[in-house]
Each structure stands twice: as structure tokens, then as C-alpha cells.
Write a structure and sequence with these properties.
By secondary structure, the chain is an alpha/beta fold. It contains 14 helices and 16 strands. α4 runs parallel beside α5 and α13 runs antiparallel to α14. Bound molecules: L-homoserine.
């Protein structure tokens, strides 16, 4: 390595699970990483909440800064690794300041890129810097690189992905144990798989941030989180898994995006035979559809220090080789406005609907009357068991229908005296479909 150019000087802001692991890797695996990067990778400075914490590496030759913004002012820092997180606040201030000051930025912050990606990519362009975020999407799966590089020659037609390990773990466990959402969530929190404040995960927000980023790269559009449809997994009950299974489906939180359509993150039913239906536990998966490639499936660990630091290291190596590329694969001026495109909308799908109704004569007539009024065509209907006078589940699958129209009908059904809870409705996505 004698002819190697100068080392790449790195500063890390945030030493949590991922930032700490990146630091440990840079220190412990200096030689193989230098070989991969073509030059030495030198961690020169860090900033985190507490200097006193033992993070399993020596701080002897690394400078400590109380404020992450101090890292930007250092002349000897080439690249800042932003591991603070959050769509607003210090992380965004740091990223803006770093790019304006000519420093490359590598971030795992999906919320920041989904909300401010266009502005930050413009700043990167104006200042000839790289802005890289492989670790923001699906942890260890190289989903960003797959789109930006490996599939760059394709016309992308569709993306579908399981992009949140916490939700996939909860849904898998609910299906396998028959427990309800609240019990599995509590258990997952106890085991450290779910955050104490779980809403970002279970309400689909984290996964939708990732989908927003992938859709921007795949379809050449500005990342626009506000345009996405975001639903989580809270409404699913143990009984839904039984019905879904009976109908030949599995319940998953899946993100789907296609050109000219609103990206949608929804709890849905997938045919048992589909690839994504087989992805269980904390794993993530992304299916890429493009022309001429057909479909490509990537599965792997979507979270955790090891998986996510692997993605950060890949970005560092790209910066070291001066091959960071454009954040969204093309100049910002060429990215389309998602909301201004003609035909943007939500694709019609078949739906699974569960009503909790009193088992008494005439209930079906009320329900089907409303369906008829809204021209909603039912494909199948199941009522399990017989419990006169008690509340039972009544499950239907519909033919393709706009979700707004379906919800109008379901809202009307809620006011029927025999319908005892707000209906649950989930789209049914076809198996590994094109377009
Ligand atoms: N909390 C996420 C998950 C990982 O459960 O997959 C970080 O986005």
C-alpha cells in the first residue's frame, strides 16, 4: 500500500448501536478495509451524548467533541458519518453544515432523506460532495446500490418490500403463536426487538421512509414522504391470521411503489406462494421489477449494528474511491415532482374485510345492501361458527376496488346496529406481479 494516496479522514456523529459498530470496525479491521478502500480509513473525531461510556474501543487517538457541529469546522475531516437520526434538528443541521463546508456525508437517517432528500442532494451537488445513505434502507441489504448501480440500465416498473424488521417479527410471531398484537409487542419490547416508543415502527412510518427513498431512486422522482400512504400493523388481530391462512394468504407489512402511483405502505395479504410471504421474523426483503431484467429479490438483515454498519462501510469505501455518485442516481434537476405527475393515485386492489357482527338474522342483508349501493363486488365470504346473539367475525374478500370507495361503504356499515366494531380492511396484493 506504499503508493496509496492520503488517508480518508472520518468523523462520526452519534455512537449508538450503528455508529459504535462503525467505529469498532474502522479500528479493528484497518488493514482489510484499507485494501478495499484503496487507502487508509482514519477515524479522527467523534461526537456522542456521553464521553464516559465504554464503547469497546480506545479513544486514545480519536478527538472527542461535545457538539457534532464542531466536526464540520475541522479542516482535517473529509467525511462525516451522521448517526444521530431524526427528520429535523441536529442531524439535519449537521448534514446541511457539512455539505456547505465541502464535507461528504454518509447517513443512516431515513427520516431525514425521505423528508429533506431533494434539498440535501442539491446541497451535495452544489458543493461537489457525496451524500450517501445505503444504511438508511433495509440495513445490510444493498438496496440503494442495487437500484443506483446494478439495475441502473433498467426501466424500473415496480418495487415491493418488507422494510421493517420489528413489524415483520411481530406479524410472524402473531401468526405462529396465535397471540394478539399487544402481547407480542410487549414481548418484543421486553426482548429489545421493539423500541419502548414503538410508533415509528408499528405505524409503518420507518418502513415508509425507506420506501420513499427507494421509489425516488427507482423512478427518478423527488423523495416525497408526504405523498405516501402510510398504514401500520396495529389493527391486525390474531383471528385475521386464521382467516388469511384459510384463504391462502399471509399477512405482512409491505411497501409497494410503481411509476405514477402513490407509494403505499400497508398491512396486506400476500399469497402464501409469493416470495415476500416467505420472509419471516426480523428479516427485510426487497423485490425489484424492471425491464429488461425481470424481477430481482434481495433478502437480509434490515437492522442491528452488524448489518447496518456493513452498509455504512460500503459507503465509506465508495467515498475513498471517489465514486459516491449522485444521491438519487441522477441530477436533482432531472428528478420529477411526484405529486405533479399525471395519473398519480392509488391503484385499485382486491380487499380482505373483517366485520365483527352480532350473529342474528338479517345482518348479511344490511351489509350486502351497502356493498350493492357502492357497487362493491364480493369474491368470497366466511362466517365461522354459530353463536346466536353473540359477536362473530364475518370475513369477505372483494374484487378490485378503490380504497376510498371501500372505506365509504365500511364507514356506513359501522352505523348498522349489528356491526359492533370498526371494520378491518387490508388490500390483497397479487403474487410477485409485474407492474
Ligand atoms: N427499526 C427498524 C426495523 C430498523 O425494525 O426494521 C431501523 O430502521
Amino acid at each position: 500500500m506504499s503508493e496509496m494516496s492520503t488517508s480518508l479522514k472520518i468523523a462520526i456523529a452519534g455512537l449508538g448501536v450503528v455508529g459504535g459498530e462503525v467505529a469498532r470496525q474502522l479500528i479493528k479491521r484497518q488493514q482489510p478495509l484499507a485494501l478495499a478502500a484503496g487507502r487508509r480509513l482514519e477515524l479522527v473525531a467523534v461526537s456522542a451524548r456521553s464521553a464516559a461510556t465504554d464503547r469497546g474501543f480506545s479513544m486514545d487517538r480519536i478527538d472527542w467533541h461535545d457538539s457534532p457541529l464542531e466536526l464540520v469546522a475541522r479542516d482535517d475531516v473529509d467525511v462525516i458519518i451522521e448517526m444521530i437520526g431524526g427528520s429535523e434538528g441536529v442531524a439535519v443541521d449537521l448534514t446541511r453544515a457539512a455539505l456547505k463546508n465541502g464535507k461528504h456525508v454518509i447517513t443512516a437517517n431515513k427520516a431525514m432523506i425521505a423528508h429533506h432528500g431533494t434539498e440535501l442532494a442539491s446541497l451535495a451537488e452544489e458543493n461537489n460532495c457525496f451524500l450517501l445513505f445505503e444504511s438508511a434502507v433495509a440495513g445490510g441489504i444493498p438496496a440503494v446500490k442495487t437500484l443506483r448501480e446494478g439495475l441502473a440500465g433498467n426501466e424500473m416498473t415496480r418495487l415491493a418490500g418488507i422494510l421493517n424488521g420489528t413489524c415483520n417479527y411481530i406479524l410472524t410471531t402473531m401468526e405462529q403463536t396465535g397471540q394478539d398484537f399487544a402481547d407480542v409487542l410487549a414481548e418484543a419490547q421486553h426482548l429489545g426487538y421493539a423500541e419502548a416508543e414503538p410508533s415509528f415502527d408499528v405505524d409503518g412510518i420507518d418502513a415508509a421512509h425507506k420506501l420513499t427513498i427507494l421509489a425516488a431512486i427507482a423512478f427518478g422522482q423527488k423523495p416525497d414522504f408526504a405523498a405516501a400512504l402510510v398504514q401500520g400493523i396495529r389493527d391486525v388481530s390474531a383471528v385475521d391470521f386464521t382467516f388469511a391462512n384459510q384463504l391462502g394468504f399471509r399477512i405482512k407489512l409491505v411497501g409497494v411503489a410503481a411509476p405514477g402511483q402513490v407509494p403505499r405502505m400497508q398491512t396486506c395479504l400476500l399469497p402464501l406462494s409469493s416470495q415476500l410471504a416467505k420472509v419471516n421474523g426480523v428479516l427485510n426483503a426487497v423485490e425489484f421489477y424492471g425491464e429488461p431484467v425481470g424481477s430481482v429479490l434481495a433478502i437480509g438483515p434490515g437492522a442491528g449494528g452488524g448489518a447496518t454498519s456493513s452498509a455504512v462501510l460500503a459507503d465509506i469505501i465508495d467515498v475513498a474511491h471517489d465514486r459516491g455518485g449522485m444521491p438519487f442516481g441522477r441530477p436533482v434537476a432531472q428528478l420529477a415532482d411526484t405529486t405533479d405527475q399525471p395519473g398519480v393515485g392509488l391503484a385499485d386492489t382486491p380487499f380482505y374485510v373483517r366485520l365483527m357482527v352480532v350473529d342474528e338474522p338479517g345482518v348479511l342483508a344490511g351489509v350486502t345492501g351497502i356493498l350493492q349501493k357502492h357497487m362493491i363486488s364480493v369474491e368470497s365470504m366466511i362466517q365461522q361458527g354459530r353463536a346466536p346473539g353473540d359477536v362473530v367475525a364475518l370475513v369477505m374478500t372483494t374484487h378490485e376496488i378503490a380504497s376510498t370507495k371501500l372505506w365509504q361503504a365500511l364507514d356506513e356499515m359501522t352505523s348498522l346496529p349489528s356491526v359492533k366494531a370498526r371494520p378491518v380492511a387490508m388490500p390483497i396484493f397479487a403474487a410477485d406481479q409485474e407492474g
